[in-house]
Amino acid sequence: MDEKQQHGYIGRKDDYLRRLRRIEGQARGLQRMVEEEAYCIDILTQVSAMTKALQAVSLGLLEEHMSHCVMHAAQESDTAGQEKIDEAMAAIERLVKS
């Protein structure tokens, strides 16, 4: 990637960092719940909330990638655009499998 070109998420970097810090706090909360032997269903509920939060970050980053990086590459050439599409599809496949 050209040094002058920025990643698509740069405009929302602070938002992503805030969300990731919140998720980090959720992970610490889950650790504490296990240490304190909390009820299984309560732990699973928090795991579900954390998973949804991570998915929201992932979808936001994917949208930024598609609308910025893929679009930019497609404007450069069909080959570069297709490479970015293939890269995005591989990322989507990994997200769906997780």
Automatic annotation (TrEMBL):
Keyword annotations of the record: Copper
Keyword Glycoprotein: no
Pfam families to which the protein is assigned, alphabetical: Trns_repr_metal
Single GO BP term: negative regulation of DNA-templated transcription
Domain of life assignment: Bacteria
Annotated GO MF terms: DNA binding; metal ion binding
Family under the similarity heading: Belongs to the CsoR family.
PANTHER family (UniProt xref): COPPER-SENSING TRANSCRIPTIONAL REPRESSOR RICR, TRANSCRIPTIONAL REPRESSOR FRMR-RELATED
Name of the protein: Metal-sensitive transcriptional repressor
Native species: Gordonia bronchialis (strain ATCC 25592 / DSM 43247 / BCRC 13721 / JCM 3198 / KCTC 3076 / NBRC 16047 / NCTC 10667) (Rhodococcus bronchialis)
